[in-house]
TrEMBL record:
<feature type="transmembrane region" description="Helical">
    <location>
        <begin position="58"/>
        <end position="77"/>
    </location>
</feature>
<feature type="transmembrane region" description="Helical">
    <location>
        <begin position="27"/>
        <end position="46"/>
    </location>
</feature>
<keyword id="KW-0472">Membrane</keyword>
<comment type="similarity">
    <text>Belongs to the UPF0410 family.</text>
</comment>
<keyword id="KW-1133">Transmembrane helix</keyword>
<dbReference type="GO" id="GO:0005886">
    <property type="term" value="C:plasma membrane"/>
</dbReference>
<dbReference type="InterPro" id="IPR007341">
    <property type="entry name" value="Transgly_assoc"/>
</dbReference>
<keyword id="KW-1003">Cell membrane</keyword>
<dbReference type="Pfam" id="PF04226">
    <property type="entry name" value="Transgly_assoc"/>
</dbReference>
<keyword id="KW-0812">Transmembrane</keyword>
<protein>
    <submittedName>
        <fullName>Uncharacterized membrane protein YeaQ/YmgE, transglycosylase-associated protein family</fullName>
    </submittedName>
</protein>
Length: 81
């Protein structure tokens, strides 16, 4: 069930991050979902390292942490592309 939570949260966060940071990056919904999932993992990892908390499910803290992680991953993805 946790994998499904990551996928759903990653989809939502990926779309939110793409809306916040628009630009020409291809890939469509699949790439958006993958970047969102990776961003949620990266955001949770970095937030845990810094002592801010982690992505623990569907709550506002997890959504903010995952969104910031997705924005970071999307920024890096766009710079590498």
């Amino acid at each position: 069930m946790a994998i499904l939570t990551w996928i759903v949260l990653g989809l939502a966060v990926g779309i939110l991050a793409k809306w916040i940071m628009p630009g020409k990056d291809g890939g469509g919904i699949i790439m958006t979902t993958l970047l969102g999932i990776v961003g949620a993992v990266v955001g949770g990892f970095l937030a845990t390292l810094m002592g801010f908390g982690a992505v623990t499910g569907f709550n506002i803290n997890s959504l903010v942490v995952a969104t910031l992680g997705a924005l970071l991953v999307l920024f890096i993805y766009n710079k590498m592309k």
